[in-house]
Amino acid sequence: MLFGNQIFHALASSPISWTGRQSGGFSIVAFSLGGSIAVSFAAHCSYLINSVVLLAPGGLLRALPNGYGNPLYQFPHLVPTSYLRKLVAGILGIKVSADLWNTPIDGADIKKEVPLDAGAISQWQFEHHKGFVYSFIDTLVHGPLMNQHADWKKLCDIIRGSSVGASPMDQRSSLFESKILVIFGDKDGIVVGGEVSVDLLQMLGDPKHIDIGVVPGGHGFPIPSSNDVVEHICIFMNLT
Description:
Blueprint: H1 2-13, E1 26-31, H2 33-44, E2 49-55, H3 81-92, H4 107-110, H5 118-128, H6 132-142, H7 149-159, H8 168-172, E3 180-185, H9 193-204, E4 210-215, H10 226-236
Parallel strand pairs: 1-2, 2-3, 3-4
């Protein structure tokens, strides 16, 4: 409900008309946790959406990677912050440096144009954002990373054109009897493409309802393999 409301707020606050007959709907592209959120939204609001593209989507993980399911995350406020920082740093592969939360930030550095570095961004958030560690832990504990099969099945039923359980609005949507694009990183150890694609094919029943793309990289592949990702999306949406 929270994530759905946030999507609706984003749509409502935009000067562009995203919904209604005049707009013709919109396509949604989502990554990782956002993929699971997008699936839930599309499953319940299919009439708003033209197509769905998912990059290493969460929701169907068969198991959490090592370190993600630490029982201490259930009680983060009973654990010293310094120890939690070490645990989260180990998961993200970033360095635990001195506490820089109160270090002044040089405005001149912010204005410099530098290549996008996902690792450096995570490092900066870890060092300067006081809520980053707790937000990450809350996502692991409460986020829709696993066991979201009900929403995935509902969306897959719409995409494969099943009238069972589909509302009249679902059946009139662009997603009804269509296909979905899912892209995986070939070295992703978090969202394992070989596992998720098998589960999706079982739900869809026919490979004609899914396009699967595999690009170089681990879970953060959308940044280093952005050209490959865009190429897959352009082909899927007939933009070439």
